Amino acid sequence: LQAEELVGIMAERSPEMVIGILAILKAGGVYVPIDPDYPKERIHYMLEDSNVSILLLQHHLLEGTDYQSHTVFLDDPSSYGAEASNLNLNVMPNQLAYVIYTSGTTGNPKGTLIEHKNVVRLLFNNKNVFDFNASDTWTLFHSFCFDFSVWEMYGAMLYGGKLVIIPKQIAKNPERYLQLLKSEAVTILNQTPSYFYQLMQEERADPESNLNIRKIIFGGEALNPSFLKDWKLKYPLTQLINMYGITETTVHVTYKEITEREIDEGRSN
């Protein structure tokens, strides 16, 4: 694998998916995430447009693609039989880390190229407003084709925290997801507003306040702060933060804490 060589990865949310991403990065490559739930036409287009040299995937997903080049199976034990020590190479800050395809406003999806330094600066900078630490538990809830997942995954790992990978079946069920947030004592929750409103509905049915979340970070779509009133009353110490950004600017570019004032005024920026 050459430096900045593009490598496709098509996997369901799983430990193997995260291992595959880290393997590509440590080898100096660039990962191109492909959601196996995408239509076959879109998967074909992304593989062809990116011209990836290798495709990492799980066995059962092979029939969902007509990729003819080199494949590595993430769920095959033989894929993990090589030398386990760190590779003797340096990955530079200005090298590409990933290419995420956005929906594209003019037809076909467009690949957005993001460098390592962008991801590092997202989480470590001289104006950092977060106090993430190794005691935090995060969830990897979103598709790795949505760059909210970049924030979730590296936010946990770069601070030494715990990352709970949420299977698709649980992600689709707010009741089950809420129970997982409680059982895993999740402290950092990243959510689109529309899904969080569903979680709030489920939590209203529980008279106990037994969540451990200390920060809820909203992104991906517009937030209506007035909807958060009941949540703030039940969990007054949980910090509510609204953030905005686009894939091209590496996840987030704005930060706004939502307090009682913003909730009363219905103002999120």
TrEMBL record:
GO BP term (any one): amino acid activation for nonribosomal peptide biosynthetic process
Domain of life: Bacteria
Gene3D superfamilies associated with the record: 3.40.50.980
Gene Ontology molecular function, alphabetical: phosphopantetheine binding
Domain AMP-dependent synthetase/ligase: 2-257
InterPro entries, alphabetized: AMP-binding (IPR020459), AMP-binding_CS (IPR020845), AMP-dep_synth/lig_dom (IPR000873)
One protein family per Pfam: AMP-binding
GO cellular component, one term: cytosol
Signal sequence, start to end: none
Protein's name in the database: Bacillomycin
Organism: Bacillus amyloliquefaciens (Bacillus velezensis)
